[in-house]
Amino acid sequence: MNDLSHLKGATALVTGANGFIGSHLIDQLLACGCEVHGLVRESSDLKWLDKSQITLHKVNLARQDFKVPALEDIDYIFHCAGLTKAKSRSDYFDVNATACSNLYEQSEKRAGRIKGIVHLSSLAATGPSLKGGRVDETTPCRPVTFYGQSKLAGEEIAKEFSDSLPITILRPPVVYGPREENFFTFVKLIHKGWGLQIGKAGKELSLIYVADLVQAMLVASKPANQEGCRYFVTDGQVYVWEQVANECARIMNVRLKTLKIPEGVLSFAALFFEVWASFSSKVALFDRQRMIDIQQSSWSASPDKFFEELRFEPQYDLSRGLAETIKWYQQQKWL
Ligand SMILES: NC(=O)c1ccc[n+]([C@@H]2O[C@H](COP(=O)([O-])OP(=O)(O)OC[C@H]3O[C@@H](n4cnc5c(N)ncnc54)[C@H](OP(=O)(O)O)[C@@H]3O)[C@@H](O)[C@H]2O)c1
């Protein structure tokens, strides 16, 4: 187990506090004996947060003039807030990139006090891998979506501040676990007996269970020599989607039939949902940007550098992570 004693009695600010990853991170920061300040929006759903244990601040990071709360008391910052779905390229950039300038500019004024900053980026900032291969920290970045481009722009801003602030950038792949709703949609279909195959079979991916990602973030917050570094963090394996579906089916004791959807049909559906959403204030759950993600034959990364330099070992393989996730869905009566 990694030593997390640096967090005991420390004060942490978590942006995106109510989100899937932010809320799990807060649970662990509290367990480490941290005092936690959470940054949320006026409209944020706070159902995963124990409001009695944390101090919440309502701040919209899309506003150019936002003020970072409680900075004078903060030892560690975990920047988890991000837009994973948006209506336009500029919406992605406002939150995933521009907000970082403001956040780190204000943090810089307290540079003497801040001991660690973890900037949560994404594998999407680098872009897809070649089938059978894995990207690593030396791979040139070629993001293929607005989301990926905006996450890369956010990283570049973080990097600019890394001379004066102790920033470590983490790039997870797909994160799964309790409270997350996109992966749940996939599991729900399997629960009904359907394994989805979009386009060709055998599309590859890296994954990480949320508890391992949270642990990695806590380890990365430790003041160390690796400041300014970017790391991929995954569970160390590469999977194909069919393998993930079969493992879910095995855990839920379901016999799977494969539902094959040609990419052309889904592209048409993506366009339809996007046009439909343009008449409402809501973001389309599925759009042409999401389609670009799905069309790639591999989203795989090597976490070797992170494992070696920070002596990190994930605790959840796919079977254990999925079993925990499915058990939670069942307890919550989502399944
Ligand atoms: N989940 C994954 O598979 C995955 C993989 C790689 C990287 N990441 C990165 O991990 C981070 C967290 O993702 P997640 O899965 O936890 O997503 P999430 O559940 O959607 O959480 C995103 C958080 O960001 C907040 N946020 C969005 N726009 C904001 C704004 N204008 N002002 C203030 N807060 C804002 C959200 O608040 P509201 O609830 O009010 O919207 C929410 O708390 C993101 O940066 C994402 O890019 C996620």
Write a compact overview of the structure shown.
37% of the residues lie in helices and 16% in strands. The protein has helices spanning 20-31, 89-108, 146-160, 182-191, 210-220, 241-252, 263-278, 288-295, 304-309, 318-331; strands at 11-15, 35-40, 54-58, 76-79, 116-120, 167-171, 174-176, 194-198, 204-205, 207-209, 230-232, 239-240, 257-261, 298-299. It starts with 10 loop residues before the first strand and ends with a helix.
Lay out the secondary structure.
Elements: E1 11-15, H1 20-31, E2 35-40, E3 54-58, E4 76-79, H2 89-108, E5 116-120, H3 146-160, E6 167-171, E7 174-176, H4 182-191, E8 194-198, E9 204-205, E10 207-209, H5 210-220, E11 230-232, E12 239-240, H6 241-252, E13 257-261, H7 263-278, H8 288-295, E14 298-299, H9 304-309, H10 318-331
Parallel strand pairs: 1-2, 1-4, 2-3, 4-5, 5-6, 6-11, 7-10, 8-13, 9-14
Antiparallel strand pairs: 9-12
The structure holds NADP nicotinamide-adenine-dinucleotide phosphate.
NADP nicotinamide-adenine-dinucleotide phosphate (NAP) binds next to helix 1 and strand 7.
